[in-house]
Amino acid sequence: MNARHTSRELFVLVLSQLPNIKKKIEKVQINDLIEQATRTLTDEVSAVLSVARGEILKADEDMHEASLRSNNESVKEFLSSGLDNTHHALELISYCNSIPILCSMADKQDIRDFTAKLIRLYQESSEKIDKIINESTEGGWDMEGMYSLDRNILIMAVVEITSYEHTNYKIIIDEAIEIAKKFGSAESPNFINGVLSGVMKNLGIK
């Protein structure tokens, strides 16, 4: 895994925790980024497990009713969804444990520098970036209603698309989709791809 990919993942995880970082971004060290990324993952694991618990409890309730009926599809649906969410939580826990290893690579200074640069670029043009994203979504979505990590992935991609004139846009979009597969729901990759396609169209980039 290259340094820029790791930086993008860190940016996605750290962005929601920026209010907790008291230092100026120029003073932030790699350990500060790891701490905040771990905090985000911990919050996400708690949220996902809470949803999974609710779905499994609902399946248990429906199981009693299903015993009186021939149709038990709702039980299967809730159990399947609950198990999917539990699996997703375990994947996030696994990644949480791997962050320090990724950032202990020889190029950890490069990881820190590029992550900090993405944060600074967003801070300098957040209103512009948010406007671009909001104008590129369909179906009445806006950033406030998005899953937080999906929103952060979109911000990461649009920051790069609008800040680096000679960049390879396909690589940025592919990276965003890969990160969505790791951190998002089953629907996240298609959602991210659709919004970024709208961004490219609206910006007149082919």
Topology record:
Layout: H1 3-14, H2 30-66, H3 73-102, H4 108-124, H5 126-134, H6 148-163, H7 169-183, H8 188-202
Helix pairs in contact: 1-2, 1-4, 1-6, 2-3, 5-6, 6-7, 6-8, 7-8
Question: What labels would you give this structure?
Answer:
single chain; 206 residues; mainly alpha; 8 helices
Structure description:
The chain is an all-alpha fold. The chain contains eight helices and no strands. It has helices at 3-14, 30-66, 73-102, 108-124, 126-134, 148-163, 169-183, 188-202. α1 packs across α6 (148-163). The longest helix has 37 residues, at 30-66. The chain is globular.
Overall pLDDT: 79
Structural class: mainly alpha
Q: What percentage of amino acids are in beta strands?
A: under 5%
- Summed up, the helix count is 8
How many β-strands, per DSSP? Answer: 0
- The helix-strand sequence is HHHHHHHH
Coarse shape: globular
Q: Helicity, in percent?
A: over 70%
Largest sheet geometry: none
Compute the CA-based radius of gyration. 19 Å
> Which blocks of ≥5 consecutive residues have pLDDT under 50?
none
Please give a quick description of this structure.
The protein is mainly alpha-helical.
